[in-house]
Amino acid sequence: MFLQVKVRTADPEEVLARVRKAGLLPPHRKYLSGEGLLVLGYPAENPDETLRGLSRVFSFEEVEETGLSETPLPAPERFSVGPLRFFVPVEAEAPAPGEIYLRSTLSFGSGRHPTTKLCLRLLTELFPEVAPEAVFDLGCGSGILALAAAGLGAQRVLAADIDPRAVREARHNVERNGLSGRILIIRGSLDSAALVRFDLVLANLTIGTLSALLPEIPGVLRPGGVAIVSGISSGQREEILSVVPRAEVLREVTEEGWLALALRF
Fold first, then answer.
1. Total domains, the chain
2. Which of the residue ranges 7-16, 102-111, 119-128, 225-234 would you say has the lowest mean pLDDT?
3. How far, in Å, CA of 89 to CA of 101, rounded?
């Protein structure tokens, strides 16, 4: 495993000079000029100590993201879920015909995490049955679930996130896939959909956020609408269902201890 630290800068040499002076020059580094990000890759032998050292070098605003990864530096990736094919580039690589382009400067929403994979799996399995025309992606991250819904045939998708970085990332991906006419990305939460009714809601959230918002989701669904929820462990199944006791469990899938549910209201 490796610790990746992403630093936002227009002058990578100046940043590397500061890191070198602090005795923290990493064995792996790459500047993504198109993104304005310098990626520093360290062996994950003692990540806490490395991060403490880097906290004395960088301001909070400079560090875009830190996280553990199987590779020292970002690498292009392709993966499929059902009929959907995704391409995650590192810089300006172009997708092949039929692929969904998914830039993921940040790790959230890259499709790598089991909670995202589970949402995609349920979405592809249930789409023919639910046949949603209008979809709401709550907590959209990079926009991967919104893009998947549109790729499967949804005509109107609203995607919201409270993180401005996610909104920026999702808008870029929607534009690159030529789907601005069908997907609207906004900064906000569930109240962003207060005046609209949807056939399907997608919510890949933390257990705390999901517990708070799930009881309100039926209010933005049409009668008989479906919500696909993820971000919970298998052991939290009963806890999350207790906040929506009238929901019908249509389907559930698990992976690596994570659980996703398709609920009809």
1. 2
2. 102-111
3. 8
- CATH number reported for the structural domain that contains residue 30 in this entry: 3.30.2130.10
Range of the domain at 40: 2-69
> In sequence order, what are the beta bridge partners of 32?
37
Q: Dig out the tokens for 129 from the structure.
A: 């049955």
What is the total residue count of the chain? Answer: 265
135: closest CA among 160, 118, 166? 160
Residue 145: CATH number of its domain = 3.40.50.150
| Predicted TM-score (pTM) of this structure | 0.86
Does residue 137 sit within a domain?
A: yes
**β-strands 134-138, 198-204: how paired?**
parallel
Radius of gyration of the chain (CA): 20
Q: Is 104 inside a domain boundary?
A: no
Could you read off the pLDDT of 89-105 as tens digits, one per residue? 887 778 899 999 998 66
